[in-house]
């Protein structure tokens, strides 16, 4: 008896284990693509709500700067002193402050060269060797002269690109503290040493063009969801910064022209009377740019090499950063952009003669179009100007000013590719005034929140630029769904989720720029529709203007403002690496059998079998539809049957075509299904099935469509609006190329 009991127990345990293993396998197969994000998002609180809006106790810090800067053109160095007033608006007591020292990425002890990967080849060109050896003569990084408060030195510790300043007295909530820093550094040659800012040298006339940023010790962000954002600057992940007001005095050689974040306070001190007059005219000119500093004046400046100096004075309010450009080579033009009553910022461009005629023709009008389009789709541009500065081989953004590529050949000619490349870079970098300069995300953590969102609205701007300034369609590189297919369907090990830290992204441009931009474009065009999406996207932009949004704030706001459940979308596009591949695996054609149509006596061998048919392997609709027999319903409650006119239902089905489609999700990423029906009479119909069709079975679904006319052809995603990776299996009847799809896909994967 005891042995029997033990045997029964053993069998029960074995059965339980077997069932558990089987269930585990089924759970693995069931991937929960439509589950809510739930705990993947941070818990809402008084600072950030479940709706995606700032909470009623939302707070953020502030940092004001007063700076005196001297640019020494003789030895290409910058010397500065700054007074920072830091406001603690948090509920916390701060015992120390963190300051960013981004120039230290080029210091002798920088970690960036150490973590960069490299390999040897049989031959190396000069640039490749330089990347390995570096510039031994260049002494980079900040040289901190002093950190003081009330004339007394403060205790500080420099850790690579971060500096901790210890406070004598803890900074309580609601208080502020003021301290000063003096520093200098040698400006890097951006053309050889790389970097987001620096100098470009023009050997022919021995002149420099300076585009200067990350040039001063800047307060790190202290946030409700993270505390201090003091991740080291390694070179890729950009910046998390605090809003504040700036007063900047910038001393340069007297023949230099300067552009900067903020409003010029003393134009009559630094410009000629003619230039001041042109500057004032530009503020009232809306149809085309006004040349403020002419090419003739710029060429004259190139030859002077003045020994005396001038001080340009600027003020900027509520900006998160500061940058400037300076050179004796600059041409300068500007025009006004009317956004609303009383809000007419200047669109401006600074460029050397080497940028003409391309820059004079297109730069400032591209700036103006960007302000208009981004203001329409996000939040209205609030600053006094937006400026595009030309220098070689770069695209980089700062509040009110950005540095952009696009240089014609020496004879002034340029290709369409160069023109479009320049216009796109200008639109993109000026667009960064909105993301992240106004809608202030943490670039050090989430590159896609500024690059991806900017690239998305860049696409919309390019289309409007084309409508207003070109007589052809703009060849946008990023945004259209089909353009992302090669990346998303590529080798799995090289693809990482969008939700990846800036320093860990592989295929940076595709991951952080193109894929999120494409995702939002598909969300707008295919899933939500432009009207609903545009309202929700603008809600996000206006909610988080001049604040610090996180990914969860974006995800939640777009759902909150649209009443569309998008958790499946964020999960698939942003947290996963699946791709779209909807396979029209089988089509079966039916008609109801009647005495009149005689379907029961017709030869229907192969009909209705579709591409999975087992009869004669037909790859078309067959010689006739497959019959089905109408049967009166006897189930359910009698009362319910009595409400149905079953004869009427039968009559309505007579002569109709029933098409059963089998759809397989080969790529794993759930997607809406757009179907194009081409009928035997040549007419065409489109249907869009929401992505929720995959809710019950994420791998395969069947659906019957009732059609009055006979169907000749079916195409899934005919306009390539969903980023479907393999279109050969989207068509029925299959072509010969389509027959090879499975072999092709298996070989690729």
List the helices and strands and how they pair.
Elements (H helix, E strand, L loop, with lengths): L1 H28 L32 E11 L4 E11 L6 E7 L11 H4 L10 H8 L9 E7 L2 E2 L2 E4 L2 E10 L4 E11 L3 H4 L4 E5 L4 E6 L5 E2 L2 E2 L3 E2 L15 E10 L3 E4 L2 E2 L2 H4 L2 H10 L7 E4 L1 H8 L6 E11 L4 E4 L3 E6 L9 E6 L6 H20 L7 E6 L4 E4 L2 E4 L11 H16 L16 H22 L15 H4 L19 H21 L1 H14 L7 H10 L6 H8 L7 E11 L33 E3 L9 H5 L3 H8 L3 E9 L7 E7 L4 E6 L10 E8 L3 E6 L14 E2 L3 H4 L1 H8 L1
Parallel strand pairs: 1-14, 21-22, 22-24, 25-26
Antiparallel strand pairs: 1-2, 2-8, 3-7, 3-11, 4-5, 4-8, 6-7, 9-10, 10-19, 12-13, 14-18, 15-19, 16-18, 17-20, 20-21, 23-24, 25-27, 27-30, 28-29, 28-31, 31-32
Helix pairs in contact: 8-9, 8-10, 9-10, 10-12, 12-13, 13-14
Task: Tell me what the structure shows.
- A hairpin with a 4-residue loop joins strand 9 (198-202) and strand 10 (207-212).
- The chain has three domains: 2-30; 62-446, tricorn interacting facor f3 domain (Immunoglobulin-like), CATH 2.60.40; 582-748, no CATH class.
- The chain contains 19 helices and 32 strands.
- The protein is of the alpha+beta class and 749 residues long.
- Helices cover 28% and strands 26% of the residues.
- The chain has an eight-stranded mixed beta sheet. It has a six-stranded mixed beta sheet with strand order 17-20-21-22-24-23, sandwiched between helices.
């Amino acid at each position: 008896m005891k042995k029997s009991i033990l045997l029964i127990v053993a069998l029960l345990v074995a059965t339980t284990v077997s069932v558990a293993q089987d269930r585990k396998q089924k759970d693995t197969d069931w991937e929960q693509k439509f589950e809510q994000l739930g705990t993947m998002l941070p818990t809402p609180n008084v600072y950030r709500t479940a709706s995606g809006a700032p909470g009623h106790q939302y707070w953020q810090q502030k940092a004001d700067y007063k700076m005196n800067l001297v640019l020494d053109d003789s030895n290409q160095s910058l010397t500065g002193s700054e007074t920072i007033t830091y406001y603690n608006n948090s509920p916390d007591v701060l015992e120390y402050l963190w300051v960013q020292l981004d120039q230290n990425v080029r210091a002798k002890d920088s970690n960036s060269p150490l973590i960069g990967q490299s390999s040897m080849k049989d031959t190396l060109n000069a640039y490749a060797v330089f990347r390995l050896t570096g510039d031994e003569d260049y002494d980079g990084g900040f040289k901190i002269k002093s950190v003081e408060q009330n004339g007394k030195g403060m205790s500080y510790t420099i850790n690579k690109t971060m500096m901790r300043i210890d406070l004598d007295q803890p900074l309580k909530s609601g208080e502020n503290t003021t301290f000063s820093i003096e520093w200098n550094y040698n400006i890097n040659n951006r053309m050889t040493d790389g970097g987001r800012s620096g100098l470009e040298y023009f050997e022919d006339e021995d002149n420099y063009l300076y585009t200067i940023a990350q040039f001063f010790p800047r307060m790190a962000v202290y946030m409700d969801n993270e505390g201090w954002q003091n991740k080291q600057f390694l070179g890729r992940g950009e910046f998390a910064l605090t809003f504040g007001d700036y007063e900047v005095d910038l001393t340069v050689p007297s023949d230099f022209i300067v552009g900067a974040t903020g409003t010029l306070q003393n134009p009559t001190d630094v410009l000629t009377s003619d230039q001041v007059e042109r500057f004032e005219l530009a503020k009232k000119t809306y149809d085309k740019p006004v040349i403020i500093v002419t090419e003739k004046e710029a060429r004259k400046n190139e030859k002077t090499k003045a020994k005396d100096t001038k001080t340009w004075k600027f003020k900027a309010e509520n900006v998160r950063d500061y940058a400037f450009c300076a050179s004796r080579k600059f041409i300068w033009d500007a025009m006004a952009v009317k956004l609303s009553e009383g809000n007419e910022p200047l669109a401006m461009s600074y460029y050397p003669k080497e940028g003409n005629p391309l820059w004079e023709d297109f730069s400032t009008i591209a700036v103006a179009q960007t302000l208009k389009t981004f203001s329409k789709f996000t939040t209205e541009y609030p600053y006094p100007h937006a400026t595009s500065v030309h220098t070689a081989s770069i695209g980089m953004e700062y509040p009110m000013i950005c540095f952009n590529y696009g240089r014609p050949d020496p004879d002034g000619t340029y290709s369409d590719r160069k023109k479009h490349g320049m216009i796109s870079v200008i639109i993109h970098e000026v667009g960064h005034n909105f993301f992240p300069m106004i809608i202030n995300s943490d670039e050090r953590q989430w590159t896609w929140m500024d690059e991806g969102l900017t690239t998305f609205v860049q696409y919309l701007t390019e289309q409007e630029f084309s409508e207003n300034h070109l007589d052809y369609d703009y060849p946008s590189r990023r945004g259209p769904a089909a353009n992302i297919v090669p990346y998303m369907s590529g080798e799995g090990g090289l693809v990482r989720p969008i939700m990846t830290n800036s320093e860990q992204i592989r295929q940076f441009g595709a991951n952080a720029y193109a894929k999120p931009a494409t995702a939002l474009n598909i969300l707008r065009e295919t899933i939500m529709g432009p009207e609903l999406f545009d309202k929700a996207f603008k809600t996000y932009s206006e909610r988080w203007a001049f604040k610090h949004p996180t990914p969860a704030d974006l995800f939640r706001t777009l759902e909150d403002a649209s009443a569309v459940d998008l958790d499946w979308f964020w999960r698939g596009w942003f947290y996963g690496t699946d791709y779209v591949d909807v396979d029209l695996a089988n089509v079966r054609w039916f008609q109801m059998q009647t005495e009149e149509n005689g379907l029961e006596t017709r030869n229907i061998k192969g009909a209705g079998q579709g591409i999975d048919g087992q009869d004669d392997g037909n790859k078309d609709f067959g010689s006739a539809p497959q019959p089905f027999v109408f049967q009166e319903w006897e189930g359910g409650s009698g009362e319910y049957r009595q409400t149905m006119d079953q004869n009427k239902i039968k009559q309505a089905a007579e002569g109709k075509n029933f098409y059963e489609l089998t759809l397989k999700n080969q790529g794993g990423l759930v997607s809406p299904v757009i179907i194009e029906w081409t009928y035997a009479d040549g007419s065409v119909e489109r249907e869009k099935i929401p992505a929720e069709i995959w809710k019950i079975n994420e791998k395969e679904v069947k659906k019957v469509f009732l059609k009055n006319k006979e169907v000749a052809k079916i195409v899934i995603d005919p306009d390539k609006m969903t980023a479907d990776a393999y279109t050969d299996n989207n068509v029925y009847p299959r072509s010969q190329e389509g027959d090879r799809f499975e072999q092709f896909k298996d070989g690729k994967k």
